[in-house]
Write a structure and sequence with these properties.
This protein is part of the stalk that links CF(0) to CF(1). It either transmits conformational changes from CF(0) to CF(1) or is implicated in proton conduction. Belongs to the ATPase delta chain family. This is ATP synthase subunit delta. Keywords: ATP synthesis, Cell membrane, CF(1), Hydrogen ion transport, Ion transport, Membrane, Transport. This protein has about 180 residues and is α+β, with helices and mostly antiparallel strands. The chain has eight helices and four strands; from the N terminus they run ααααααβαβββα. A four-stranded mixed sheet has the order 2-1-3-4, with helices on both faces. The longest helix has 20 residues. The chain is elongated, with a radius of gyration of 20 Å.
Length: about 180
């Protein structure tokens, strides 16, 4: 996994530099690269893009044809570059790193909040208020439900994880009892 992120990093940084200089803005580029990442994540697309019977030009046309929104010249050039370098399948990782760069530039971060139960908007806002104080930046929540947590929440911001779930507490208790 580290290898993919290492390979994807220069592409994400180059894309971010181009997006900062473009008048369309970071949000437009973020949406576009997110759409490209979603398309490249589809198993049939992945299979087609790695088919040796297709030429690079055919791959470029095929992939560009799958994009619903209009592609800017810069985004089309980016797709062409990825196909030419056989890196198109790295788009999900490139998109994730681009989003991290964008968030850092804006002074924000993505907070992955996993809860055992559905959270109301008020609960999410209350949780975000405390987390923003702890991390010192504006957080963009991505909330999911995982019933295996039993209770509580697990929050991931960057490479930091705050796990107050019942599942984690039981695991710590088990580890303590086994070690004793």
């Amino acid at each position: 996994m580290a290898e993919l992120s290492t390979i994807a990093r220069p592409y994400a940084e180059a894309l971010f530099a181009a997006a900062k200089d473009d008048q369309a803005g970071l949000a437009a580029w973020s949406e576009a690269v997110s759409e490209l990442a979603q398309i490249s994540s589809v198993s049939d697309v992945r299979e087609a893009m790695s088919d040796p019977r297709l030429s690079k030009d055919q791959r470029k046309k095929l992939f560009s044809g799958l994009v619903k929104s209009a592609l800017s010249k810069g985004m089309q050039n980016f797709i062409d570059l990825l196909v030419d370098n056989d890196r198109l399948l790295l788009l999900p990782e490139i998109a994730a790193q681009f989003e991290e760069l964008k968030n850092r530039h804006e002074g924000s971060a993505s907070a992955e909040i996993t809860s055992a139960f559905e959270l109301s908007d008020a609960q999410i806002q209350e949780l975000l208020t405390g987390l923003e104080k702890k991390f010192g930046c504006k957080l963009k929540p991505v909330v999911t439900v995982d019933k295996s947590l039993i209770g509580g929440v697990r929050v991931t911001v960057g490479d930091q994880v705050l796990d107050t779930s019942v599942q984690a507490q039981l695991a710590r208790l088990r580890d303590t009892l086994v070690a004793a």
